[in-house]
Amino acid sequence: MDIQVLCDHVRQIAYDIHVYHGHGHLEKVYENALLHRLQKAGFNACQQYPIQVYDEDGTPLGDYLADLLVENCLVVELKAAKTIANEHVAQVLGYMKSSRMEHGMLINFGSYQFQVRKFILSEDRG
Predict the structure, then answer these.
(1) Which of 108, 125, 106 is nearest to 117 (CA)?
(2) What's the average model confidence in pLDDT over 9-14?
(3) Which of 48, 75, 99, 109 could link 30 by a cystine bridge, Cβ 3.0 to 4.6 Å?
(4) Helices (H), ranges, the chain
C-alpha cells in the first residue's frame, strides 16, 4: 500500500476517534482505540512495539517502544496534551532517525482541535 494512502487512513481513523471520544482521556485510551480500529479496518498494527535503535555505524543499541507500528513501515506516536509541543516533534524525529524508520506520525488527542503531523526522513533529506 502506498504510504500516503496509509497515512490518510490512519489520519481519518484517528479523527473519527477524536470526534467520538473527544479530548480528556488518558493517552492509553486513544492508543487502545486506534489499535482496535486499525485492526478492525484490516491493517497490520502493533501496540508498544519494540523497534531497534542503531548508532551511526549501524551498531544496535537497544529498543524503544513505539506507541503503534502500522504495516511495519509507519511509526505512530500518540499524545494527550493541550497542544503538540516542540519536544513531542523532537521525540518522534529522534525515534525515526535512531531506528531508521522513514515515516512517522504524531497524533494529539488532548486538544479540543484534532492535531496530526506527518514526518518523512530519508538519507537524502536527513
Answers:
(1) 106
(2) 98
(3) 109
(4) 3-21, 27-40, 86-99
Query: What is the per-residue pLDDT across 65-116, written as a single tens digit (0 to 9) for each?
Result: 999 999 999 999 999 999 999 999 999 999 899 888 999 999 999 999 999 9
Torsion 117-118-124-126 (CA) sign: positive
Domains of the chain by residue range: 3-120
Query: Do 55 and 61 meet the contact criterion of CB atoms below 8 Å apart?
Result: yes
Distances (CA, A) of 68 to 39, 78, 86, 122: 11, 8, 20, 20
Cα angle 11-12-18, degrees, rounded to a multiple of 5 = 90
- Residue 29 Cα to chain centre, angstroms: 15
53 SS3 class? strand
Fold that domain 3-120 belongs to in CATH: Lambda Exonuclease; Chain A (3.90.320)
